[in-house]
Queue: 3 jobs
Job 1
Amino acid sequence: MAALATGGATPSDGATSFQRKVPASSRLAAIAGTRPSVRHGQLLLSSGLPSLDCVLGGGLAVGTLLLIEEDKYGIYSNLLFKYFLAEGIVCGHNLFVASAKEDPADILKELPAPLFDDVHKNQVDEKETAIKSKQESQESMKIAWRYQNLPKMEVSPAASARFGHYYDVSKTVSPELLKSIKWHRFFLPEEMSLHPEIKTCNMTCGYTRLLQSIQRIIYQEGFDGSYPQKKQKNILRIGIQSLGSVLWGDDICCTDNPEDIFSLTKFLYVLRGLLRMSLSACIITVPAHLIQNKAIMERVTNLSDTVVGLESFIGSERETNPLYKDYQGLIHVHQIPRLNSLICDVSGTKDLAFRLKRKQFTIENKKIINIATLINN
Amino acid sequence: PPPPPPYFIEQAARGSPTSQHGAAQGRASRSVCGTVAVRCEVIGRRRRRGAGEEGVGCWASWWLGQRGGLVLIEDTIECEGRSLLKTFVAASAHRGESVHVFGFEIPEEEFRAGFDPDVTVRLLYQDGFTDPLRWTGEAGGFCGEEFTALGVSGQLARGPAGPATVVLDSLSWLLLRQPLPAVCQALGRIPMAAASAGLRVTRILALLHGDLHPPGLVETLRSLARAVVGVGPAPEGVGSGGDTPRLASMLQRKETGKVLEKEEYFTILAGFTPKALGEPTGSVPRDEDTDPHSMADPAANLTFNLRLSDTERRARDGVPLPFHFSAQKKSSLLEASASAGKIYYEPDAADDLDEEDPDDDLDV
């Protein structure tokens, strides 16, 4: 379906022979890495994790904000952040990386490398419970042998017209791939040292600078349509790490009565305005477990479009619980945006857990198989 | 960064049981690693099961792994943590680093008391205790307001070049006078500012009095720190007579994303060397009543049999599935597209092929 939707980029090795018949004049110049949504007509981006895309209803809409509530040690939220940026690299989008803790260049160096093998075949193998012996090798498949002569799906990043890629967490992205895209940086200590005259930093100091920087990039690079005829349209993927933590100058994480309780919410309001009027999407990670005043998180959730909370099992009693032994944590989807509609069209399952293997980060419904207690009860 | 000197790891792996403190030729540093050779309990995602990681003493692996991170020592009124801070200072000094101490709570003489001479040589004390508000107008000393990245790196630049450790005694004093965001930003920028001045800050040690601050502040600092050691009183009966045993709960966050948590009893000997007294037993309560195996195996307590024996398993594998074709048929199906339809007939066991034409029996 993705191949149909992207306007029929036909690989010559014949993975699919379907071609979409559209008259050339009315065909929109498709932006790489996006596809239109059948539900609400918006352009969708992949968040970097195909299973998260399914949970969010197909993907992340262009012009919206994805907010991730960090887990206790920030490990998995950082991983989702990196997946988002890595997806931008593979699709050729522009990146804007903002952080107050790590240098953005270091963040980009540690992005996971994309996988170009056919991962679907591995998933088919796991589901084959009828045949115990794993003889599904490359050469001869036992059951699906009619498909064994079909070529592999992905050959090179240039030919990948797929929506949503898989990444190998143990390897980092190659520097050539990094050099092929254009990216912008915002590192708060660097900005503060460049303009030290604003020394007594009021709360919105770091946020104000960040907003100014984003606005400048959007205007200069033409993401808001300032240069309509000149350039090929592209998407700007903005990533902001650990917003609301003390390193941004905000004290909502340390006291119940912060000095400026509304600075984070003001920032989100202005940021969403910037996103809506440009071809961009943003991912923000917020250390929600540290924010003392719970009303702030309510407001922040209201002011964002998609909100996903992560809860990892590290250090908690669930880690040794045999029910959760396959998983590393839980995912809570707090909010899905309602774009061009009255209700959001997403599945009602709320019991989602994630597991991280070397090459795959999957989100699935919690499989709690406990037949014994059911029968005994 | 230079690789760690191999003798540290080797000594720790050998696990020299007694402490040899007081010797001046750097043997004390080996005892720091050697006495605390216990296995680390790893909680969290493990990438590789390297044998070296569990054998190395916990303290040693910390030191050799820290790069410009914040190490927080958290104490309470029940159990003081300054002596543990001084053991870290002694270890740093024995390793050849210069130690810059910013002291605000106790006078300099009291801080320097008890150290070996080779440690005190490397100790550079910035006095913030005598005149914190600069009322006497004398030069020297260190003021609380000067605690910014530039101010600190200016003080560091006066010392010798090479690796340096910054010690804050205590961070609570600063947090009671300055807002937390400013202090955290300054702490984060000290390594960078020092690097631009030509120094290398290996770590920042800070003493924090946990009960002086609201819990949100302490949690925030814990999330920023690379390693946190909480010091508390140990129960009776731990260790031998003359020691004052204490309990340390350590949390370390590595660059790879792993999180290590550990609890250990320790005591501090003369010359500020730590001595481990073992781990607390039963720290993770395991419920023996609920049998985890039966919960994980759903086919256990049923009235019908869901399990397969080996012969049954083999028989099940041998059953041919309806779409199982012979190899010849598969390959011809795969290749043929243009030719006319062929009929493939594979007789099964019940078939008997009789080549005779049955019409021959008709007598017509």
Job 2
Amino acid sequence: MLGRSLREVSAALKQGQITPTELCQKCLSLIKKTKFLNAYITVSEEVALKQAEESEKRYKNGQSLGDLDGIPIAVKDNFSTSGIETTCASNMLKGYIPPYNATVVQKLLDQGALLMGKTNLDEFAMGSGSTDGVFGPVKNPWSYSKQYREKRKQNPHSENEDSDWLITGGSSGGSAAAVSAFTCYAALGSDTGGSTRNPAAHCGLVGFKPSYGLVSRHGLIPLVNSMDVPGILTRCVNDAAIVLGALAGPDPRDSTTVHEPISKPFMLPSLADVSKLCIGIPKEYLVPELSSEVQSLWSKAADLFESEGAKVIEVSLPHTSYSIVCYHVLCTSEVASNMARFDGLQYGHRCDIDVSTEAMYAATRREGFNDVVRGRILSGNFFLLKENYENYFVKAQKVRRLIANDFVNAFNSGVDVLLTPTTLSEAVPYLEFIKEDNRTRSAQDDIFTQAVNMAGLPAVSIPVALSNQGLPIGLQFIGRAFCDQQLLTVAKWFEKQVQFPVIQLQELMDDCSAVLENEKLASVSLKQ
Amino acid sequence: MAAPMLRWGCRGRRWAFARVDGGSCHRRGAPTGSTSNQIRGESSVAQQPLHTAQKTRKGEHKWAAVVGLEIHAQISSNSKLFSGSQVRFSAPPNSLVSFFDASLPGTLPVLNRRCVEAAVMTGLALNCHINKKSLFDRKHYFYADLPAGYQITQQRLPIAVNGSLIYGVCAGKKQSQVIPKTVRIKQIQLEQDSGKSLHDNLRSQTLIDLNRAGVGLLEVVLEPDMSCGEEAATAVRELQLILQALGTSQANMAEGQLRVDANISVHHPGEPLGVRTEVKNLNSIRFLAKAIDYEIQRQINELENGGEILNETRSFHHKLGCTMSMRDKEGKQDYRWFMPEPNLPPLVLYDATSLPAGADPQQVINIDQIRETLPELPSVTREKLVQQYGMLLEHSFTLLNEVGLLEFFQNVIKETRAEPKKVTSWVLNTFLGYLKQQNLAVSESPVTPSALAELLDLLDSRTISSSAAKQVMDVKNRNPRAINKLIGLVRKATQSRADPVMIKEILEKKLSL
């Protein structure tokens, strides 16, 4: 049952094959078994069981709230949850219990979803590995998969298995690990520069970043207000569409949400024919650092579309190479501004020093934030200084406009959807990952994803195939602003073609029979 | 711009919090109880050397002063600029604080329509150009009563620009002539108020009250077109009357609804402007004039004695009657000007020509519609008074400047047969004179408009003489000796046949004393 998709388990609930409480308990027990993954910061067991009980009553009375009623979900620990600690994986917010729910959390609860817990991340979502939070790094469930283990055995250089675990990517790594390890059916991530799509690619999941303005940010503790969007992590595209249907829409508490009419329920048609589609391949995304495996899968995916009758054309996004630097300036500037509120007065950590206000601020912030957060605040404040403002911040904003225009031009030239890699390569072992600092890693890992945030476009990472090492590789589709439904429809067609294999976690869990009951055969259509 | 204030004396101060209503449920020890007798931190006052401003008569004529003003008017609205919290003066501390006001992480600003309408209305009344598109920015500084660490304001593209304010300065012998003056208005911007810091020096604590945090302000920037305290004071008074007439701000300075910062410099005419100082937080019109004149004189003395003027922020100490350096910016203060506020899209206003067809009136603001609802402005009221009653312009100024006097005057006019000129003279000279003498506001007057009207009728019908009428006023104003004079008049009229005790009784009854 745990291995099923959200839609399938929803059907099972409706048919009474399983009750919400049974489902909730199964997930809770798996959460305990997979505790070593460090996917969750807080497991909200009591809340979830109570919600399950209520859901059960509704099902008994024939008053189900819909597809999400009784479905276990997890939420990244940077979304405010009323009565449940919300830490951002930072000392600054340890013990902070928000008095209100983020709009997206409230919407999920209103649909009857069960909140299993709050998932791990890089501190304040600043990172691309889920390795830099105060609660420790998240381990990628694929590290323990049969697929990966078997490949490791063939490799004579294989070292100590326990220290060889892989990162999930980030910063929504906890959410990705939680869905990937079957502890819930969907999870909320946040996506500022790729933080949902990147771990989705590394954990073999669908990672969806909606158009900016389609989903409310109210209650999402911000990284960069002008780029943040709540992200959705699921095991298939249909599930992402169900969750999006529950979340999308204007929110009076978030003035940047738009009043675009969006069809509800958010159903995805099954695309029978791609011959009317035009797929754009941005030539600037072919960078030297791209692994040959990813490159080859990317090109095969393009071939697949072409062979099925779609028009596939090369397009140019000429300002791509400036994008990551521009992102860095804008991101750190907003970070410096957004983080100013953490001064130890109203909430959060406060130091013991009380000789003066300024000393109290300084010590509180030194103790509360890690080096990465403080580094970004420092550089952001540098960019916002009066004498630097024009040279950095204003220029970066202009470049941002050019980058957004690149996309507009590509779409105006007749392209429906862009196809790119999500990451440079598959997930790397933790020990390998931490050889470089957070800034270097973020610059590498966000390379294909952050431009989309600057342009506010919808994008989704779809798992395509396993690498030679037996690890997932994802590809990214980018759509026109507010054409999220069209984007997901194309992604769904692609997903069906590639038949990405289900993660096999037998060795990890004793009773995996449940997990594997729905296992599909690994397709070879795109395998190398 | 509402910059940090009262920065001195923070050493050794611990932070304590009056409870944030419905706010954060952070697991921390119970908030410290609030201290009731807060003392503002003015400990540094005594350390300041006083400028004994001896007026150096030599060469005084060659100095000219230049004064510009930044005025913050609290918008009269039910709720705050970006949150749904109520706006109310003197509510229990931290009882009007939303999650947004306390800057709980994840909260976002939502613009208050009423505040935008108030800004547009004020802009129109001050002859401003209303920008159909304006932007919000963040101005950053760390201060305990600014929970977010930044203030949301409008710097790059404010809602109204390029206006003017006409005010009248008294001149001539006896200051009886009014000369109209114009000051240009650079801009009007919408911004958030900060909370209040209450310094308790005895306990080395600062308590924060966030009731005011996030209340909508109109910052009105007046160009440096004024040259002395009186001009500035008159301009501010005129602005106050306009805001009150519009209802966009109660503009009560004692309650902090109107706060003024003055930029002051002196120079020799024809030469470049001098270095300016900023005198902050002037919260009465009288102190405003005093502070500016003191500061002008201080700068002149400083320069004439070979000193130099520092570009600094100063405060006015009303008991000592002098300005003193706030010494709060030892390093250069960089507000990290001015990051756009990413959570608020540009504010777009419409007029009749640009209003999109079928627009939901609840979702758009129509400038032309607001223009139609503009009430009569004080200048028009004065003109009408002059035309209708043939009074002098300066009399119309006085009628409007005294709170409640115009209404009093109009009520008397309504009820009396007496000539308007006579009414004007009686209200402005006799009546107002008595009030001033007794230090009373119009609303506290023991004389009702009807009583004065009746008195003027008696005078008009020559039932009583002018001096008798004045004595009645005197009695009405509780002058104990005045009744004796009236008794004397009655005795004289009755050729001393009436009993003085009885006369007194009857008089007291008639005058309802």
Job 3
Amino acid sequence: MPFMPVKFNLQKRVKLAQGLWMLYWLSVIVGIVIFSLGIFFKIELRKRSELMDNNESHLVPNLLILVGALACAINAFGGKVCHDSLDPMKFTKWKPMLKPYLLTCCSFNVLLLLTALLCFLMQFAVYLTLAEGLKNGIKFYKDTDTPGRCFMKRTLDMTQIEFRCCGNNNYRDWFEVQWISNRYLDMSNDEVKDRVFSNVEGKFLMDSVPFSCCNPGSPRPCIQHHLTNNSAHYDYDHRTEELNIWTHGCREALFSYYSSMMNSMGALIIITILLELEVLSLERTQEKFFSFKSRSSQQHSSSKLTSELKHTTLIA
Amino acid sequence: MLLKMKFTQQRRVRLAQGLWLMSWLAVMCGVFIFCLGIYLKTELLRRAEVMDDTEIHVVPNILMMVGLASIGTNWVASRVCQDSLDASRFPRWKGFLLAWFVVAALLCYVLIVGLRNGIRFYKDTDVPGRCFQKETIDRLQMEFRCCGNNNFRDWFEVQWVSNRYLDFTSKDVKDRIRSNVDGRYLLDGIPFSCCNPVSPRPCLQYHLTDNSAHYNYEFQSEELNLHSRGCRQALTDYYMGLMNSTGPGVLSVILIQMSVLVSLRYLQTAVEGAMALENPEDDSEGYLLEKGVKETFEDVKANVLNILKFAQVDPTTDEENTLRPRQKHTPSQTETTHRYNRWKWFPRAKTVFLKCFLICK
């Protein structure tokens, strides 16, 4: 019977259209998630841009925001087309746009692939920026009266408290810089004068760390000053006293935070690529069904016409 | 009829659709309130060591119960909506709806009234360095940017350095211990967690009252070096802020719940009216109350009195018989006994009603 193949395909086509519509809306939601992740990443970079010398690259978050917005738009359009596909009258106006739309989808997938690659590769840039920025941050810690750097102390203290780290590589970085401002040093004091003269650059160096390096989990009240001097504190051996201050460097802590963020975003983009490819293949199948249906309906109408003609000739 | 409106079939369908959407919105709000209750409870449990935990847990408990009740009632409302336009499935909800209205009204009431609570937060401690974990207090002070109970001087009155780290052979330590009756090592120093990172100066922890111990330091004017707030004030502000910010959210939930209540009542009356007509797709009327407010109230009161009378009819008739001498019951006497019974029950019902009213107020 000529009707059977078309009917079977119609039911399948309805299911296909419904499934495709659901997938489109899922992709829109994923697009929204990518957009908000891009914004979140941008805000996190901005929050700590002081520690990166205001030099960090905003390429990845900007790209994520763009890709998220594009994903929403493209998939919403696809969902609308899908919704209208079961109504032949409405669908005819979308039909000429299908081919360019599929091409746009393909190029969007390429863009997604590029974004995923960047998510994984830009981590090196972040690492280098962090290393440089933290070194300068520790150097400028004391400059709370210099405009442009007056919040460096606060930022660095809050970072050390939040990320549970001390210094760039470890706490000894603080021994190499002067982190107490000259305003609070009594230059007439002998001890201060000794320390200042003990090095070439005239810096007041000491074996102490700021309070933000202290570990609250330590059972002992925090020992900040004279860290390498065992006799300065009761029952203290600086080689075995581990828990008193944070031992990790801030570069490692910050880098692991940012890299985990970028890795999860890259993974999400790869999932989005797979989703888009699935949607694309289903869209192609649907398009094929449509051209088949239009052809078969034409065939059916033409066969009906020839049988009618035969009938009339027979009667005649 | 109270506030009656005409409903065409089209309008009924639209009302059912709108109500279905709104009830699902109300379910989401119920989920939100439940999660808010859980969040508040975990926040309070995290600080359990420094919280006086007798009364505070009332608020998150109420929020969780209200959230669950809201989810349940609004889910039922959406099911009723789905069945309302199908004449065969709607009648089964008929008996259930009265109970639903009572529960939903109770829910609104609890939301409006039950969330105002005065709460006492921070427990007074006299030995924070010993009774509670050092880490908890340190983290508390760093997170809430506070120092001590009321201010940093509270640390001067306790020994917050453990004896394990004190060198008892040192003269300074021995002097300090002997300087007070309890033999505690008191000093004018504070833990590092009191330090304020915003201060431009590296943190001064020890010898705080001694101006000459530090360069360019004056104890009375050095403000930013430490956190100036006490932890009690900081915690109170934090939790009050949390409660205040939930206020508008809860208000909007109340509005949604009330509109679901009103719409469902209209839908119920309109659909029931339509089903009673010959042509179910004709226009029908929807209303809030079948009679006016006063008459409905009288009806409800009569029903309640009937129920009470049925519950306690036997002992009183026995009592009546013993009180009065045995007489032949003339019609006038039965009439008087009825009037007497009615009069007897009225004050009791009145006191019951007044008690309910006062509690609800």
